Structure formats: C-alpha cells, structure tokens
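Appendix B. Raw example, untouched.
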Amino acid sequence: MSWVVVQFAECREVFIDDQNQGDNVDAQGRLNPLLVNAGTHTFTLGGAPNFAPPSQTLLVPEVSIGTPFSVIFAKTA
C-alpha cells in the first residue's frame, strides 16, 4: 500500500483509475492523503476542466503516510 496527495489550487474531487477517491484537501484546507496500491495509476480531477495536464499516469512508489507521493496539477484559465 502507498499514500498520495494531490496538489491543486482549490478543493477538487480526485479520481484514481476513474474511481472517485474523495477530495484533495480536507475541511481545513490541508492536503488529504489518499490510500492506493503501489504501482501505475491514472489521476485526474473533477469539476471544471481548468487544470493541466488533463490526466496523469504515474508510477506510485510504496511510501508511508508521513511521506506521501505528490501528484501536482496546475490551474489554467
């Protein structure tokens, strides 16, 4: 098992392999660690399509919740 955090400028639903995994941040605005299996996964966000890239397929290493793997989306216009 592994942990990821998805960084984006606002709260968004996170989809991993087309499955909703919850929001990228919690109610206090802190990054929300998401539990996944180590391995290759495709990440995307819900909501308006104002982010880049539209999706990311990444190899997630096995890491602890203390050092989660970061997936970063940039806000676009």
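End of appendix B.
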